[in-house]
Hints:
Elements (H helix, E strand, L loop, with lengths): L25 H14 L1 E5 L6 H14 L3 E6 L10 H13 L33 H6 L16 H10 L12 H17 L3 E6 L6 H13 L4 E7 L42 E3 L5 H10 L7 H8 L3 H12 L16 H11 L3 H12 L5 H6 L5 H10 L3 E3 L5 E3 L3 H9 L2 H14 L3 H11 L5 H17 L2 H14 L5 H17 L3 H12 L5 H13 L9 H10 L4 H17 L4 H17 L3 H17 L5 H14 L9 H11 L3 H18 L2 H18 L2 H18 L4 H14 L2 H18 L2 H18 L2 H17 L10 H11 L3 H18 L2 H17 L3 H17 L3 H17 L3 H18 L2 H8 L15 H7 L3 H11 L4 H8 L3 H15 L4 H8 L2
Amino acid sequence: MTTVPNGPLPARTPGTAGPPAPVGREELLSRLESVLHARGRALLTGPAGVGKTEVALAAAARAEARGETVLWLAALPADRAIPGAAAAALVASVAATVAWPGPRSESVPRAEPAARPEPGAGEDLRSGIPARSAADALPSGVFASGVFDDLPGPQRTAVAMLCREAPIQQGGWDPIALRLGIARILRVLTSRGPVLLVVDGAEFLDPDSTDLLRFALHLAPPSLRVVAVETPEPYGDTHRADEPDPGTGAGGLPGRPGAGHSAHLWVPSEADLLLVPPLQADEIAELLIHHRLPSRMAGRIHRASGGNPRLALAVGRSLADARTPVHHAEALTLSGRARDLARQLLGAAPPPVRATLLLAALALRPSATLVRRAGRPNAEADLAAAERAGLVSLAEDGSLVFTAGLLPSTLVHDACWAERSAGHAALAEVVDDPVEAVRHRALASDRPDEELAAEVAAAAETARRRGNNALAAELALLAAESTPGRDGARRIARLVDAAEEAARAARADLAMRATTDLLARDASPTDRVRARLAVLDTAGQGLTDLDDMYVHAMEDSEGETALRAAVQLRLAVKYVLADGDPERSRTAAMESAALAASVGDPRTAAQALTVQARMERALGSPDSEPVLARARELELTERPLGIRNAAQILTIRHALFDDRLNDARDELNALLPLVQRRGSVEDAIELFRTLAEIESRIGACAAALAHAGQSLALTLEAGLSPGPAWYALALAETAGGSLGRAASYARRSVQASEEEGDRVFLSRSRYALGRVQLINGDVAAALETLRRVQTDERAQSTVDPSMLRWHEELAEALLAHDAVEDALALLAEVRPVAQRLGRTTVLLGCDRAQALCLAAEGRTDEAAELLTGTAGRFAEAGLPLEQGRALMALARVERKRRRRSAAQTALHAAATIFERAGAVPWLALTSEAPAGELPGAAPGGDEVTTALASLTEAELRLARLVGQGASNQEAAAKLFLSVKTVEARLTRIYQKLDVRSRAQLATALRP
Length: 1007
């Protein structure tokens, strides 16, 4: 029994509402606090490792931040057999936590939470001394604090016996006195102020303590609120026969009634019972980042853990500790701590339940009926118990899924061959699908058999016709592995088919398994190349660690023109994604297109020309559109296998770059039904991500958020790197969601792209992050981030400014940092390129930044005229968010011109546009009082108004917060800034307003 988990509660900043909620638990924490406020009792329940204690800790920390007294009891399994252990710990917790007024309180310092003592259940008994004298004689004990001096004699004696500070007399303690004593302690404690009692591990409470606490809570006033944290025990009483009966008391001490034990401190109702659910895939990614673990495998880790935070962190740490980085095409490292945690969860299940679960783990479509027919007559009862334990989830029709992928894999991993074989053989007899029956028969045999291998290969073809690419890939590999070794040529051919089938199904792990087996055999160069290409096609962003694959593929394709064209095509993709070298990528793409054309391969030629067109665009070449047109012609004669790297999707992206957004959206919407019916997962991800980018730009904010969310969900489900999807979500959140979430998604995308070595999306993610930082007013951070984008893009020789519009954002960041000359130089550099390439909306963005530079130079009339025209041209281009942004800039300039009415008109027009588009964060920016125009301020040209007008909007936001009493730390948290940035900005504010203290600043801000 402990009184505080892992030391003191989390530290907090004075004046705040406490630390933030654990990852993904903000809504649950709010519900918990609402239940406590309304009912005074709350029971947190859920499977082991799901994070119940973390939620309770956060609630306790927030209660402490409000000035409440927090008592924490953490019961351990051994406490169940120690009568009164929890009640004694409660008494010790009260004594250690509270500075009690009384005759001895002045000489007893208040114990900090970290110093709270363990309960004294194991201390030596002192015999022959009256209870009060015993307490007085133990200055180091619980009673030395003077906390309980006012208890009536019999109650004090009973409490002293409970805490082993007085000998347990013949007949035991007085149960009525002890009940009343514990109740009185809590009642007096609550008279000093609100109290939150957290009982962690309530299922381990001993019966005596449960009875005492239940009575005390029944008499406690409403100011005592209680949170119980409980992990259900689904398999009944786990008490062993060789342990003493908890109801009789340890050592057979008298005075312990042997009534049945219920761990509940009150009878919970639906209203006060809160189930702690598993985390979603995106929340698992945030959890990994929070613990400084790689997030690129977040989707696969979520599947392995089922959203259980403890399992997810164990898997994440096993990946981080791996000697070599785990690639997307490799199986997850599920050894060590992760596997042990899964064994702990499964180990609590009785052997019959584990046997039933093993059959379910072996089945493709497990159900209670199937498992019962396969030899487990009590399947329903076993699976119901497993569901209560949080191991499986049962549907109404009896079908089931394991809550975490790590559970079935551990069951199969730990089972011996005989158990697995018998299970598959039993399932083969009862499944109703011949494809599944063949699969089970093959897995039940450990001897290669050509007849069986042929059946499995035919089953793979059947699965492919059904559209079940994942099952087809698994069966294709199983057919290859079932082929006798003496028939080497047939086995190699089947391994090649398995690798290519895995590539179509986006099963990187199966592609790698098939290729590894093939490369260990005497395969032809052609077969080796085909297998390696399958691995490369399933690698997603993670191309950096596959250099050997490219080298060997080039060697083996020597003399094979068609294969060399395919290898050069993959190299062209690698050169831009992993190496950030568009010129080399263009050269490889041109060579691939020429080779493919020479052997009459229009499909490869079209893909290569598409890559070339993309590179021509990035390099600012006028040849981009003619090359893309040639690729589109070839696609009309030879339909591409998917939309990724297809000329059709690149045409749409070019329309996005050129802000021909309606055309781009219409083409994508026409593709959507086709992709949803027949496309691959990667195709759907690409489509939804591109749609989100278009809608973020066009001002369809709700649709952008929905499509970006779909892209992320599919990405995580497929186990691919989430970097690109997080980038799309950052854009969508910036347009119509939350700037805080936008910054979070952008940072995640940066980290994932760095982990993958994806240079393209690393630049995009940094651009998205820098833009959010600039909008939030964190100029220093925005400047640093956007300068890194500038460095990255120049290193990649990117010329076309429409592909990533960082120039106008960096110019504004430079201007906000008082680097007007640098901003003008950057605009002068990008303008001629945009004019040469005909990028009209890029020029409009430059015009907005140019106008702000004019205003900074004091040329406000010219600035206002330029911004008015720019806003109108943005409207004509169908870019409402950019139009609203230009109007906001115009309002700033009009305020500098002292034209308050014109500023208000511009700001109101911007707000109307943002409201119509659902651009929530932009609308919030317009609702803030403009610089130099505080509510209630009288018109006029006094010096204070002039000085306030000199502040930027970011400076004014900070000034208002500080003037209202916020500390630097609080202002930094609210504005998403670093404390150093706040300090530097405050220095500039003080200089502009000629003030020297916060008091003077507050005075200067008053109307």
